[in-house]
Amino acid sequence: DAKTTQPTSMDCAEGRAANLPCNHSTISGNEYVYWYRQIHSQGPQYIIHGLKNNETNEMASLIITEDRKSSTLILPHATLRDTAVYYCIVRVGDNQGGKLIFGQGTELSVKP
Amino acid sequence: GAVVSQHPSWVICKSGTSVKIECRSLDFQATTMFWYRQFPKQSLMLMATSNEGSKATYEQGVEKDKFLINHASLTLSTLTVTSAHPEDSSFYICSAYSPGKGKIYGYTFGSGTRLTVV
User: Fold this and answer.
1) A35 vs B: CB within 8 A
2) Each residue of A47-78: pLDDT tens digit?
């Protein structure tokens, strides 16, 4: 079973920041948090991942709480093309090729 | 960047026939490949994990004799749906993992295969 819970859906205004929360209260000390997104009928696209520290790349920022029981994905300036299902995933298993077990994800709708 | 090619992108087959789906890592070697299935309006469900040269490990409830997985090389894994039935109609997605790509592209997904069994 997935180790994460996310809101089913969220709306965001174009140009504003989208903040997507995720709870992973049973995460273990060496388990990474990954974020992917899936646009309809396509394969998931990697966004970002982290262990303890906050991470930032060209797509997004990942904020992980100090107790690691939750995290937030931030899309700083959402565009219409960011409309997708966003999955927060805790990698299960050891570091080399551990499994990504998907939860239900958050359907983000970016509106003009 | 890391690219995973999945072929075919869609296929229609008759009930009772078998269908093979290919998953190739184009610019990296994948030590582990994963196969997922996704029904409409649902999330991805992991079916099996395969390592090059060894038997696949199937998730609970997935029939290994029906979904044959072969990971013949570090760049190719195949999923064969045997004796397909309409309930096997789904979106099948592969993922390739490479420790060499590590932090950024550890897990790369293919674009998926839409299987329709008629």
Assistant:
1) no
2) 999 999 899 999 999 999 999 999 999 999 99
